Amino acid sequence: MLSPSLASAGRRSSLEPAVLVEGLTVKYPGRKCPALEEVSFSIQPGELALVLGPSGCGKSTLALCLNGVIPQAIGAMMDGQVRVAGLDTRHAPLNRLSEKVGVVFQDPESQFCLLTVEEEIAFGLENLGIPPGEMPGRIAAALELVGLSELRDRRIDRLSGGQKQRLALACVLAMEPQVLVLDEPTAHLDPQAAAEFFSAVAHLKATGQHTIIVIEHRLDDLMPLVDRVLLFGPGGRLLAEGPPRAVFATYRQDLDRSGIWIPQVTELAYRLAEAGVEIDPLPLTVEEAAEALEPYLGRVCLRWPPIVDPPERQPATEVRRLSYRFPSGFQALREVSLAIPEGSFFALVGPNGAGKSTLALHLVGVLEPPPGAVRLLGRPLGAYTRQGLPHLVSYVFQNPEHQFLTGTVYDEVAFGLRVQGLAEREVEARVSAILEEFGLASLAPAHPFTLSQGEKRRLSVATALVLRPRLLILDEPTFGQDRRTTALIMGRLRELVRGGGTVVAITHDLRLVAEEASAAGVLVAGQLAFLGPVAALLGSTSLLRRAGLVPPPLVRLGQRLAEQRDGLPLLSTIEHYLAALGAGR
Amino acid sequence: MSQGIYMETSSYLHRLNPVTKFVLVIPTTLILTLVVDIAVPALFSLFFLLALLVLGRIPPSRLARALLPFLPAGIGLLWTTAAFYQTRMAEAPAVALDLGPLQLTRAGIIYAVSIVLRVLAIYTSSLLFLLTTHPTDFILALVQQCRLPVRLGYGVMAAYRFVPLLSTELAQIRAAHRVRGVPEGGGALAAPRRLLGYAIPLLASGIRRAQQVAVAMDARALGAQRRRTFYRHLRFSGSDLAFLLAYAVFAVVVLSLLVWMGLPARLDPFGGPAMRR
């Protein structure tokens, strides 16, 4: 790290880092604890730095400090200094700063205000007072960089989420900044769109003209680009700074404790090391892991854990030739038929708008299926009363806030039990137990809307699980969750399944599918394109592509290993690798 | 649904400055409140409808659909105005339609028709604006031509994008509440309470989005420069002048015809002839 005296000692123009942060402390009015505390680091021109940290550690606050929005537009107390491309963010005019620093935010729906792609890019240039004659050239160049040249005249509301995020990137690129800050840019994107976004970032990095700071949870595609990692701890303090391999090798405990996602192959290496298979150097990408595992291929265990056929069970839910057309005329489902056996974990995947939620809403009767098209636990759905269904089925929506009904966390969990008419003593016992288990006990009197995103998700899952449903449907259960929350929720779902319950997860998260699900269905444009065991889905790259998915890192690694060693089945989860490398018991 | 009833196409009217089309509503309303007559509002309505069909390239079916909401309002207005019409004339008015307890007078019916036609003329003049102007363009024109503060103008546009999102979100919230066993129907208090339950999550996400947009706009230097430039400058062009002139000529011709033929004297239902006596 540069010492302050060195940074200010002449030779500034050539040696000054692109970003220099010294003793940065930020405190929002009305908050007891600062959002960032005594943060110092510097980033050299052309570097790509990855910012990691638990949720609520001040990562987004840092992004706003870098372009001067804090303290100039948002009132927050700020100590220390931030210099970006030689400008002090406290004093430099915001328009000059936004020529130096561009920020892309996470929500594709709330970054735009105009109608068309072209006009939206022009908006930033207009704000800077760029002469109109210069604009078309700059717009074209920015679109070229992110691969959207064809969509110049397209209306923004007709773009996909991934295209919107690349547009947001183009909008800041047109302002020709030296520093780019990407604040969880792929949080709302499906895996394919995220991969496209990262490839645009890779392209930018290759031009060498930008210093890039990325706040991200999805690391697998990003790791090859990362030069440095800034690891934040709870309370907005900088825990570590350095090359990614060193940080991941040294700070495993902090990463685990804070529930921060790490590259999947790195996690695999951690687990293998625990089991006595030491891999050095620590792999960060699939390529590195494939190389590192090659020497072990000779001793892999080919006696693959026998797949035990699950005992024949009656279907928890059964759909027969279900079609559905929205009142708008949009055909959401076409002749879908499937059966999901009791006591199984089923994954429903497919691109956005393929009809996954529409199908799931039919399973629980929120959308009324035609008579006989959907059966629940052996009886036609129509045979159940509206009061009876909530005893048997629960549904966890993607946005937890949508399903909150009461004013406290406690009442929220108790609501369903009370609807069922349970005695208050029983209600209390069950609610307290599950709040304890989900780490929400201390928040029992709080209003659900005041919780953090992770807490809201845990609460919404708890409200469903407390009912002990026979069929539980979850829409993107891992969306935006840290590693710890995800592990907690998955553990509980596994228990539910072991107890004979049935789980249907709508998801883009193939890691979740690989680790938890036994069978999967792929919906494409309202039609069932695949129905079968998960291993068959993961093995088919073309099928995954049609579903808007990309093979997760461990599957890609497994494919490469299988090419090198005959007879090796496709390894797709950490447990598989432990078993195959003889590290498991 | 984010654009109201705007119809996307390319036409002479679409290319006019939004302010031009918006401004026309004002003299039209003024003239029609001052002149009580059947021919004048009928001619004005015809003017706007023809302009929409020919200069605005709005298909007749689309135009008919846009006029549809006027039908129930128009019939209701016609009926109540005719039924409750009170004459100030001394002699008993001529009864045109005898419905027992209710008698519709000839003057009453004429007056009612003129009222409905006036409203129709104002309605069609608004259609000329609404069908051919994208809301975003209107706000842009207000910023560029009428000096609407930049932050306010672009703020409104950003908020406007959220309208379709709101309805999607509302549908999701209703489904979520239903799954959790919130009773549908119920007593008189159930419906308002349910609506409140929908409003809280909608407000929460609305406020969050508004904050995010505000920060995103700040980050792109909105309002940081005193002089902003415009990529797409909405100017007043010759076409605007031509259209305004055509409108003025039409209005003057119609009004002078009216005076020349002495029409107001004959049709003024407030009993003009009686007072002149």
Automatic annotation (TrEMBL), chain A:
Q: Name one Pfam family in it.
A: ABC_tran
The entry's cellular-component GO terms read: ATP-binding cassette (ABC) transporter complex
> Where in the cell?
Cell membrane
Q: Which UniProt keywords apply?
A: ATP-binding, Cell membrane, Membrane, Nucleotide-binding, Translocase, Transport
Source organism, top-level taxon: Bacteria
Q: List the Gene3D superfamilies hit by this protein, alphabetically.
A: P-loop containing nucleotide triphosphate hydrolases
Domain ABC transporter, by residue range, is: 19-260, 317-550
GO molecular function: any one? ATP hydrolysis activity
- Which CDD domains does the protein's record reference? ABC_cobalt_CbiO_domain1
Per the record, the similarity remark reads: Belongs to the ABC transporter superfamily.
**Name of this chain's protein:** Energy-coupling factor ABC transporter ATP-binding protein
Please report the organism this UniProt entry assigns to the protein.
Thermalbibacter longus
Q: What is the lineage of its organism?
A: Bacteria, Pseudomonadati, Thermomicrobiota, Thermomicrobia, Thermomicrobiales
UniProtKB/TrEMBL annotation, chain B:
Q: Which domain of life is it from?
A: Bacteria
Work out whether the entry's keyword set contains Magnesium: no
Broad class of where this protein is predominantly found? membrane
Q: Which controlled-vocabulary keywords does the entry list? A: Membrane, Transmembrane, Transmembrane helix
Which regions span the lipid bilayer?
Answer: 22-55, 67-87, 107-131, 241-263
GO (cellular component) term, any one: plasma membrane
Topology class, membrane: Multi-pass membrane protein
Q: Where in the cell is it found?
A: Membrane
> Ubl conjugation: is it a keyword of this entry?
no
Question: PANTHER family recorded for this chain?
Answer: PROTEIN ABCI12, CHLOROPLASTIC (PTHR33514:SF13)
Protein name (database record): Energy-coupling factor transporter transmembrane protein EcfT
User: To which species is this protein native?
Assistant: Thermalbibacter longus
